[in-house]
């Protein structure tokens, strides 16, 4: 398993410590549930739930694997009619260790909304703050996207 080891010495001439490195072993157990339901010809509901318990070892000492939340879930509601489509997609990620493995990061919820006319709108919460991101439909309009706290 490759993880970021904060204590790993870097190559000569490179300041600081830490690098991605192989660990002795990794154990991952969990379960995943997925469903999809065509409510009508134009309306689809689908989603997943994942539970993952992941641990890695370094010198026979076990650690919870960084950046892997134990609980994740998402839901997708899609509506399509002729040339119009609309989608809303809430996503939940439970607490997990940050890349360094030293701090438990807060859970967060992200909600994406998109349609065939305007592009994609995302709302998400992280560390008790809520953000809004607006991404236009056309690729050349990407410079005009907005990312702001609410």
From TrEMBL:
Gene3D superfamilies the UniProt entry points to: TonB-dependent receptor, beta-barrel domain
A cellular-component GO term for this protein: cell outer membrane
Domain TonB-dependent receptor-like beta-barrel residue range list: 17-111
Location relative to the cell: Cell outer membrane
Top-level taxon: Bacteria
Keyword Membrane tagged: yes
InterPro entries, per the entry: Beta-barrel_TonB, Beta-barrel_TonB_sf
Lyase is among the record's keywords: no
Pfam family of the protein (one): TonB_dep_Rec_b-barrel
Keywords assigned: Cell outer membrane, Membrane, Receptor
Protein name: TonB dependent receptor domain-containing protein
Lineage summary: Bacteria, Pseudomonadati, Thermodesulfobacteriota, Desulfobacteria, Desulfobacterales
């Amino acid at each position: 398993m490759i993880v970021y080891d904060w204590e790993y010495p870097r190559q000569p001439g490179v300041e600081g410590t830490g690098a991605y490195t192989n660990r002795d072993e990794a154990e991952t157990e969990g379960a995943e549930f997925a469903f999809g339901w065509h409510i009508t010809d134009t309306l689809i509901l689908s989603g997943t739930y994942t539970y993952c318990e992941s641990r890695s070892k370094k010198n026979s000492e076990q650690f919870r694997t960084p950046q892997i939340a134990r609980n994740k879930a998402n839901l997708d509601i899609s509506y399509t009619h002729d040339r119009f489509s609309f989608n809303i997609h809430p996503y939940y990620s439970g607490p997990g260790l940050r890349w360094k493995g030293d701090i438990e990061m807060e859970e967060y919820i992200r909600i994406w909304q998109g349609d065939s006319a305007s592009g994609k709108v995302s709302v998400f919460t992280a560390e008790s703050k809520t953000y809004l991101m607006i991404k236009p439909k056309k690729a050349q309009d990407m410079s005009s996207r907005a990312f702001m706290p609410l």
